Amino acid sequence: MNKELNHMESTGTVIQFVGYSNSGKTTLLCKLIEQFTHIGVRLGVIKHDGHDFELDQQGKDTWNFRQAGAPMVAIQSATKTAWMENHAVPLSQLISRMSEQGAELILVEGFKQESYPKIVVIRREEDIELLDKVQNILAVVSWLPLQKMSIPVFSIDQVDEIFQFIHGHRLVQKKKTKENR
């Protein structure tokens, strides 16, 4: 299990949340998003979908544009913008785009094989093997009592403590970025 921190590629701090399906990643992320938003942190959130998602609705203009062959389609209203491409964009590019738009903290759900710092979410005993399969683990969030580890272990109910841990990590990374300039 590699617990070393890799150098951040972007100006925004990146933290991945990885775990198996129905481990509680999305619910935990939503609670953390509320807390970071409350203190004014500009967030970006990226979710990996193991299936082929569809934002468009059949018969709508953007869907028709894509069906006609447009490889990129964007739609904008007074309050939202969506951008769709007919290929997967590397996580590093998505992170760069969010950083360019001012994201200070980028929370990523999924992308287990990427090398960004991770919080592993464990729901079932058989999920523990994930700790040996991913790299760059910052902490573990578990539904089960776990043995003491060399990295922080939080209960799924310790949302405030997880928030404080991530906030502290973000401030350390921010300081390192300033020192390297």
The CATH H-level homologous superfamily: P-loop containing nucleotide triphosphate hydrolases
Q: Quick one: biggest sheet?
A: 6 strands, parallel
Biggest sheet, spatial arrangement of strands:
2-5-1-6-7-8
The gyration radius over C-alpha positions equals 18 Å
In what range is the share of β-strand residues?
Answer: 15-25%
End-to-end distance: 31 Å
Number of strands: 8
**Which regions have little confidence, pLDDT < 50, spanning 5+ residues?**
1-10
Q: How many DSSP helices?
A: 4
* Overall shape: globular
Helix/strand class: alpha/beta
CATH class descriptor: Alpha Beta
CATH fold descriptor: Rossmann fold
> How many structural domains are formed by the residues?
1
Percent of residues in helices: 25-40%
The average pLDDT is: 88
> What letter string, H or E per element, gives the SSE order?
EHEHEEHEEEEH
CATH-level-2 architecture = 3-Layer(aba) Sandwich
Domain Molybdopterin-guanine dinucleotide biosynthesis protein B (MobB): 14-143
Organism: Brevibacillus laterosporus (Bacillus laterosporus)
GO molecular function, one term: GTP binding
InterPro entries: MGD_biosynthesis_adapter, MobB_dom, P-loop_NTPase
